[in-house]
Recover the amino acids of this structure.
């Protein structure tokens, strides 16, 4: 598919196989061809050549962040923008390129800038949803089972890591486009626009980093809760063991069955021993409650 907006702006949306044939004569095709294999597109990158800009985009899926929504290769020169993706992705790309509000097509660099901007249009709201999920987890620390909470936190941290790397790659791309060492884009405003886009991506990157740290803090709080519960359990076990230790000593002492043990022949020795055991337990319970251990 191809659209011509003016004499200096042409947009082509091709499949990988179509791009490998249609772009064979373009300058820098040997470098562009490396991105025409979907299995090799794993991250966002841009390489500035004397006459063109080539690179790739790997955009995570906001519904399932651990998977890619789409991956594409792009080729940009002063007169045209070529986007190459697999055939299943082309309809989604077309909807991004032609939303309800039309993209800026004054020149090819504004068009590419508008396209990149559309990729992160609602990302701040998306990251705020992460923040709400983390806040909900923090509030439910005392009620949620540790395994369930840990599994949820691990998933969120992995999803945030995907977007953290994605924004870092976009930020590197925007720096290359804003510097434009080869003066590929003549208007100074284009460089400013890409610099502004880089600032937006940088804020998203910082927000993602903050959310990752927030998730780590919640993980530490959850571990602290587990440690407190373990300490409570160990304290109870220690108190119970301490209460019954004197009774075990008495049982072991009188279980030796020596012949000359005067208490064994005393008529009230059994009841006296019961009273002594009860007194020992009562004194220990009183002492532990006084110390706040029980």
């Amino acid at each position: 598919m191809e659209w011509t907006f003016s004499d200096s702006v042409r947009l082509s949306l091709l499949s990988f196989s179509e791009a490998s044939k249609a772009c064979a004569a373009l300058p820098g095709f040997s470098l562009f061809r490396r991105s025409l294999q979907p299995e090799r597109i794993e991250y966002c990158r841009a390489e500035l050549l004397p006459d063109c800009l080539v690179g790739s985009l790997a955009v995570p899926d906001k519904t399932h962040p651990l998977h890619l929504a789409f991956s594409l290769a792009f080729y940009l020169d002063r007169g045209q923008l070529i986007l190459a993706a697999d055939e299943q992705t082309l309809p989604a790309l077309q909807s991004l390129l032609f939303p309800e509000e039309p993209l800026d097509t004054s020149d090819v660099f504004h068009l590419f800038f508008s396209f990149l901007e559309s990729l992160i249009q609602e990302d701040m709201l998306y990251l705020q949803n992460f923040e709400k999920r983390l806040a909900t987890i923090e509030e439910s620390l005392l009620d949620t089972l540790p395994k369930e909470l840990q599994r949820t936190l691990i998933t969120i941290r992995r999803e945030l890591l995907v977007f953290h790397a994605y924004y870092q790659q976009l930020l590197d791309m925007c720096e290359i486009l804003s510097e434009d060492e080869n003066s590929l884009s003549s208007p100074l405003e284009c460089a400013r626009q890409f610099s502004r886009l880089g600032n937006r991506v940088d804020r998203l990157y910082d927000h993602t980093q903050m959310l990752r740290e927030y998730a780590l803090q919640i993980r530490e709080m959850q571990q602290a809760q587990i440690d407190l519960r373990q300490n409570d359990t160990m304290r109870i076990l220690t108190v119970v063991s301490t209460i019954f230790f004197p009774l075990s000593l008495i049982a072991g002492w009188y279980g030796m069955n020596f012949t000359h043990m005067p208490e064994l022949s005393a008529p009230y020795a059994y009841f006296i021993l019961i009273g002594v055991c009860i007194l020992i337990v009562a004194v220990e319970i009183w002492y532990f409650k006084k110390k706040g251990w029980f």
In short: The mean pLDDT is 80. The CA atoms of residues 250 and 256 lie 10 Å apart. The two ends are 77 Å apart (CA to CA).
